[in-house]
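EI: anyone free to look at a 222-residue chain?
SC: sure, send it
EI:
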Amino acid sequence: MSPIALSLDGSIAALFVVLGLGVMVSRQMLGTLRFFMWQSVALTASALVLADALQAINLLWVALITFSTKVIAVPLVLRWAAGEEIYGRREVDQALSISASVLVAAILALVGWFAVAPVLPILHGTPFALLNLPTGLIMVLWGAFTVALRRESVAQLMGLLIMENGAFFGSIAIVHNLTVIAEIAAAVDVPIVALVIGLLIRSIRRVTGTTRVGGMDTLHER
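SC: here you go
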């Protein structure tokens, strides 16, 4: 296994984590989307590095599909479905301050690392998994925390999407021989989810005048 490829993948994993933290703490709606897009670029780069190091042609398709759906399709879909809520100058409400959010994120990172530690000796023959699997699990936890933390539906959508990024980041280092059909089926749901939630966001704003979900428990039928 090339140490250069391992080093490069480690750098990408570190960047992947930093960008995920950006999604979590960014105060601007557009900023959360941009951090997600750049994290998807990092996921694409990791797939390309693994494709070359493992001689896995299917990971080239993963990289192409990831870039096409998450870097290109998702922003276009959201611009069409809920453009004003994302591309306007909108601040994101959240339940905790940024400093408290970073502290919780650090705790969740430790939880994710210790949770996956018992599995790592089994994966000793796949060194990329030693990097990608803990990173991916941490991102799944951070995505779930983002959904709970944010009070804006668009920002919660970004939390769901970085959870999916984390799951992909971990899985490509373990199972990299999926058929192209399976990879397309796994990736095509992302723009569909973005479209459905974007349309819901637009409908919610039309009815309530806001996309904040914190107060929606008080809504009632007239």
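EI: Residues 57-87 form the longest helix (31 residues).
SC: 👍
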